Amino acid sequence: MHAPRHRSRLTVVLIALIAFVIAIPTASAAPITVNVGAALSLTGDAGAYGISSRKGIDMAAKEINGGAISGVKLNVKTIDDLSTTAGAAAAYGVFFRDGVSTIMGPTLSNVALDVDPFAQAARIPVMGISNTQPGITEIGNFIFRPALTEEYVLPQVVKAVATSALLPKTAIVIQGSDTFAVTSGPLLASALTTNGVTVKKTELVPAGTTDFSAIAADVKANDPDIVAISALAPEAVPLLQALRNAGYKKAIIGSNGLNSSAVIKGAGAAANGLIVGTSWASWNQTPANKTFIKNFKKAYKSTPDAFAATAYAYTYVLATAAKNGKAATQDAMATQLAAIKGVKTLLGNFSFDVNRNGISPVLVQQVKGGKFGAFKTT
Hints:
Elements: H1 5-23, E1 32-40, H2 47-68, E2 72-80, H3 85-98, E3 102-104, H4 109-122, E4 126-127, E5 143-144, H5 150-162, E6 170-175, H6 179-194, E7 198-204, H7 213-222, E8 226-230, H8 233-245, E9 252-254, H9 261-267, E10 274-278, H10 287-300, H11 306-325, H12 330-338, E11 343-345, E12 348-352, E13 358-359, E14 363-368, E15 371-374
Parallel strand pairs: 1-2, 1-3, 3-4, 4-5, 6-7, 6-8, 8-9, 9-10
Antiparallel strand pairs: 10-14, 11-12, 12-13, 14-15
């Protein structure tokens, strides 16, 4: 029995309509926009570090906004924290007013200790991208420190040196005058002692010191097997120069403040022999690192340092958290940052531990011929 002709026509019309609806392109979901406030030292004592960090953040944000992490857009507003608490507090005030999703910075740890409690009270997540001193994450559950702590890095550096062919038996610690140096100095001394190296003395640099020759002469007179320096660039550079001018030719261990191309550039030949720990190194020949260095040089006509590279990597961690949470509210960002585990980054696999401190591989490097290279243990 034949179906009625009008029913056949209806079937054809329905099929055509369904095909038409399927062919209409569906609107893609709007990207997750993460408003980021970056409080960085672009001037002042930590300017060398903050400028590098800004380049790393900006480069990562450009890549992410270009599709490197699908569905996420970063809107970064950078304010100079002036390397001071007052400067960072002013920057935070702007970020609070604008309702940012996350704050990156400030550059200096002692400044972070002063201003991060305000972010914690406001429940705004903070990524301390270069804060290595103790006490940062203890401020509260909205404070994250992706930067490897001095407690995590320095013992590994000292152990590598103490068990190397150098086999140092004695050391002198030189401790700069700023809060960072005052905190890191004892960590160096403790790590040396733990590894069987006798610390003859700790030289304290008085605030405002411009002539380091007396300290250098005393170090040379005591002739330790190794010198360990805890200082930021403004004191680290003249200290290195003074030590070499005094005739001290042995190896020198540096805290994180000396892990910068600015220190090498400022100290010149005096930086040769300097040993530091880092989460990133230009000589690390992974495919991701080689690509990063190539792109950085193209963008900025200069070679990246650890502060640029880590800021770049941590910006990707931030964007990954937003993607994982499918939201960029302050609470969502805090929840997803805390859940970050084993994320592939320029630095290797990155995680936050239970105390919201970053964990990634540590590399030990030494300045040779005016540039960082792998520290040779034999």
